[in-house]
Design a protein that fits this description.
The protein has seven helices and five strands; from the N terminus they run ααββαβββαααα. It is α+β, with helices and mostly antiparallel strands. The chain has a five-stranded mixed beta sheet, sandwiched between helices. Strand 1 and strand 2 form a beta hairpin. Helix 5 runs parallel beside helix 7. The longest helix is centred in the first third of the chain and has 19 residues. The relative contact order is 0.11.
């Protein structure tokens, strides 16, 4: 056996420079993990948007009211509603357009607000869950969801209701099977699907889908 094949028995300490570098990196990671969240995500986004070149003023007509905000052009409609206009009824679920929790109506059509830019929706009629009720009078779809217990945790409910309104207006809720098909883009982790279908069907039968 040659000396080259023997394990190192010298016991030499690692290079001081390497040790100092490792300690700095470890300390930085630990500090980041333990740092308390002193500011909200909305404040972080606002602070960041002011530094990003291209921040501009835009106007969105939401629930019948024109709202002005300053945002970077790549801000999604969902983030504009939640973080800039404080309309948090539209939920951020998957942020990939797969769960439907962020569904809103734009010019009467349902869309996933996480998949469209706010700047692209200027001049359009945007309706969120906050704009359905008329004062203390619930929209028929909201009332039907309560009647049929169409929600459990409630996280997906705003998107389900907005999609249900559109489904009825589109004429896609004439049967249970059709309703299930055209509501399939809205996921409910709690599995309240039969109750949701019952609510949508009741509104369709009573002709109360208009937002």
């Amino acid at each position: 056996m040659t000396n080259d094949s023997l394990p190192d028995q010298s016991g030499a300490a690692p290079d001081d420079g390497s040790r100092r570098s490792f300690m700095k990196q470890a300390g930085g990671i630990l500090g980041l993990a333990l740092a308390p969240p002193f500011i909200s995500q909305a404040e972080r986004l606002t602070a960041l948007s002011k530094k990003v070149q291209g921040v501009s003023e835009m106007q969105l007509k939401v629930n019948g009211t024109v709202r002005t905000l300053r945002a970077e052009p790549r801000v999604t409609l969902l983030d504009a509603l939640r973080e800039y206009l404080d309309l948090t009824g539209s939920k951020k679920g998957c942020d990939l357009g797969q769960c439907g929790a962020c569904t809103v109506l734009v010019d009467g059509r349902r869309i996933n607000s996480c998949l469209t830019l706010a700047v692209m929706n200027q001049g359009k009629e945007i309706t969120t869950i906050e704009g359905l009720a008329k004062g203390d009078d619930l929209h028929p779809m909201q009332a039907a969801f309560i009647k049929h217990d169409g929600f459990q945790c409630g996280y997906c409910t705003s998107g389900q209701i907005m999609s249900g309104v559109a489904c009825v207006n589109e004429g896609h809720a004439t049967t249970d099977a059709q309703t299930r098909e055209w509501m399939s883009g809205n996921l409910c982790r709690c599995g309240a699907y039969p109750n949701i279908v019952a609510a949508v069907r009741e509104v369709q039968q009573k002709g109360g889908g208009k937002a």
